[in-house]
Amino acid sequence: MPVPSIDAGLLERGGVRLAISGPRATITLDRPDVLNAQTPATWQALRHIGEQLDPDVRVVVVRGSGRAFSAGLDRRMFTGEPVDGEPGGLGAILSLPAAEADARIASYQAGFTWLRDPARVTIAAVQGHAIGAGFQLALACDFRVLAEDAQFCMAETGLGLVPDLGGTLPLVRLVGYSRAAEMCVTSRRVSAEESLRIGLANSVVPADGLDGAVDELVAAVLKPMAGAVSETLSLILAAAETPTAEAQLALERAAQLRRLQSFAALSAQS
């Protein structure tokens, strides 16, 4: 279903496809010839989708076309070749004043951070490689459903860089400091089986069952009322940072009162 507010040209430049079906949106990284490697145009397209999606979209599925989820950064980003019509790749950032360089990286991060907004549930459907930026894109989602051939790898440190697309916080929350540090510093590959065991994956299925498993999960998260889901996600996100149990209890009380008020408003309309 076409979305009038979405810039189709921007999505095409970023190698991204968007499909809307009722309350579900499916974002597909669509550069299978380079294993869905990402460029700044990819992040711009992702950010644009997040800014323009209709509030009625309750679930977003992120996936890759072909045999990989995403192999991370396009190699041209490291060589100085023109990327998305701009010269210099990553090195071009160094030519900017400090504030502009910071803003440039922040704009890249914005393509990922909206996926953690509790206003909607986000699901990464991962097959094959999810490396570097690909891993961080999967980490930005609420749930990760993996095919048996999936492999995660935080490759940035091995390239002399750091993970800077928002992946470090969810990784630590999922697997703990020590394991997250080991994965990032060694850049080792993590199999689907290990991902399930340590909490990176919600489920692992045969490759030919990935679509069906994602469809089942989408159906399950659409059953509860939208407000109940978003309030619950907000509470779970807050739990990791709320300083005391009493503070979390207060957040729960406030959220429940908002839900009861919503029920009362619905009853008054009927």
UniProtKB/TrEMBL annotation:
Matches recorded under InterPro entries? ClpP/crotonase-like_dom_sf, Enoyl-CoA_hyd/isom_CS, Enoyl-CoA_hydra/iso
Q: Which Gene3D superfamilies match?
A: 2-enoyl-CoA Hydratase, Chain A, domain 1
Q: Which UniProt keywords apply?
A: Lipid metabolism, Lyase
Q: Which PROSITE patterns match?
A: ENOYL_COA_HYDRATASE (PS00166)
User: Family, per the entry?
Assistant: Belongs to the enoyl-CoA hydratase/isomerase family.
Q: What is this protein called?
A: Enoyl-CoA hydratase/isomerase family protein
